[in-house]
Amino acid sequence: MLNDTDIATPLIPIDRQASLGELAYSSLKDSIISGQFVPGRKLTVRSVAQALGVSTTPVRDAIVRLVAEGALVNLGPKTVVVPVLTIATLDEVTKIRLALEGLAAFEGAAHIKDRDISFLEEAQNRLTDAMDKAQYTDVLRANKAFHFRLYAASEMPRLVTLIESQWLRIGPSMNDLYPEFAIHRRGVTNHQRVISGLKRRDGTVVRTAIEKDVHDGYQRLSKLVLSRRQEAASP
Description:
The protein is mainly alpha-helical. The protein has two domains: 20-81, Arc Repressor Mutant, subunit A (Orthogonal Bundle); 87-233, Up-down Bundle (Four Helix Bundle (Hemerythrin (Met), subunit A)). Helices cover 68% and strands 3% of the residues. The protein has helices spanning 20-33, 45-52, 56-68, 87-111, 114-132, 136-152, 157-170, 180-184, 186-199, 203-233; strands spanning 42-44, 73-74, 79-81. Helix 4 (87-111) runs antiparallel to helix 10.
């Protein structure tokens, strides 16, 4: 049973000067995309409102939007759950991600600024440091920051919004990449290739590295999803 205090850690209280509904939505969306909630996690309107320091009305509005986007599933009038990934969803999302994120990476390489590359290097350092300490929640935050700074450099905001919609479906399941990805350093190698390609403004190298990053994640997650489905079907 989820206590009202259980949700406090992943969410940051929001500034009341802006639209509370929009900020509640942004905070929840960011936490889902960056894997701060695992699949199967139940959230109540009250617990989210308490964590954000707002009333239940803007939180309810935010949750309604996220349910409509497929990021959350209704369990009742005041409770939602982070959906468990199916192989059909994983296959579909991965195909879309390869197309969209490959394009964003290629365009990002054409428009990247030196300050963006510095940010990516710092994010990668945070990622590897957290990985060394087995702090996988921090790894996922740094990973999200890395990818979306690169995609923002594409100067194609509508494309970035489309990518976010796919990460809403896949973000929670990225928890299942660890600790294996920490042991084999797959993501680290891919990110290093991204940075190297960006310094040369080589869009093809950057695109290939991002596509490999997506594909590596798919291979790990697909094995887990299929294994769990087989276990569930066993007598």
